Structures are given as structure tokens and as C-alpha cells.
Amino acid sequence: MNFTDVITYLFPYLQSFRRLKDFISIDLIFPKNWEFPNEIIQKCQVVQNEKHQGEGIYLSFVSKPNAELESLIEVIEELINHNLEREEKERLLRVKVTELKELFKHSTLNDLKGLSIVLENEAEEEHDDVEKLLEDEE
């Protein structure tokens, strides 16, 4: 990623870039509902800034301005992607729960007892069974 790509990617969360003697600090503010898994955060030097608590979670990511900085950007990217994926999964779960509620409203108990949920990348014949059940209900 070049510098422009990094800035564009971080822009929704970016508070500042700072020089701290021989280090660079990338200060970011994340939504309060985000997760910060230890397996990601422990890969770099990160400090939480308490004075900006009302705005969100203010974190300063610190590194030397060398190859370590590239690793730091990768950790930040991993953290952001983790949370964006989690948010998308939560949104998708709400949609699927709504779909299931509709399916339960309009299906018989016997049909629902035979209901199984499979992912698209699972065996094709299992997928056909779910599609047939859904088609029968329409």
C-alpha cells in the first residue's frame, strides 16, 4: 500500500500522525462497540488515550519509521478488517433471523422439523434439499 492508499483506508478513523522523537504515532478513533482482540493488538505497540473517551476508543499505534511501520499498518488493517467483518456478520445475522421468522410463520411443523441449514460451499445435494423446502413453502 502506498501512502495515499494508507491515508484513504485510515481516514474514517484517523485523528493524527505524530512524530515522537524517533517514533511515529498513528492516532485513531474507533467506534465504542469495536473489539480489540489480544492476538491482533499484541503484534504492535499500542496505547489507549483516555482523554478522548467520549468520541470513541482513541488508540495510538507507535513504531519506528522503517519496515516496522509497514508491519504496524498491517496490524491496523487487520484490526479494522476484523471489526468490519464482524459488523457485516451481525447485519447478515439480523437479515437471516428475519428470513427464518418468515419461514417459520408460513411453514408447517413437519416441514420445519426437516429443516437443515447448509452453506453454499457445502455438498450440492444438501443445498438442493434446502432450496426444495424453500420453494415448497412459496
Question: Could you characterize the architecture of this molecule?
Answer:
Helices cover 51% and strands 19% of the residues. It has helices at residues 3-10, 38-41, 67-106, 109-113, 124-137; strands at 14-20, 23-30, 45-48, 57-63. The model has no long low-confidence stretch (mean pLDDT 86). The longest helix has 40 residues, at 67-106. With 138 residues, the protein is α+β, with helices and mostly antiparallel strands. A four-stranded antiparallel sheet has the order 1-2-4-3, with helices on one face. It contains five helices and four strands; from the N terminus they run H-E-E-H-E-E-H-H-H. The chain folds into two domains: 3-105; 107-138, no CATH class.
Key features of this structure:
single chain, 138 residues, alpha+beta, elongated
Number of strands: 4
Q: Helicity range of the residues?
A: 40-55%
Walk across the major sheet and give the strand order: 1-2-4-3
DSSP strand content: 15-25%
Mean pLDDT across residues: 86
- Rough shape? elongated
What's the short version?
With 138 residues, the protein is α+β, with helices and mostly antiparallel strands. The chain has helices spanning 3-10, 38-41, 67-106, 109-113, 124-137, and strands at residues 14-20, 23-30, 45-48, 57-63. A hairpin with a 2-residue loop joins strand 1 (14-20) and strand 2.
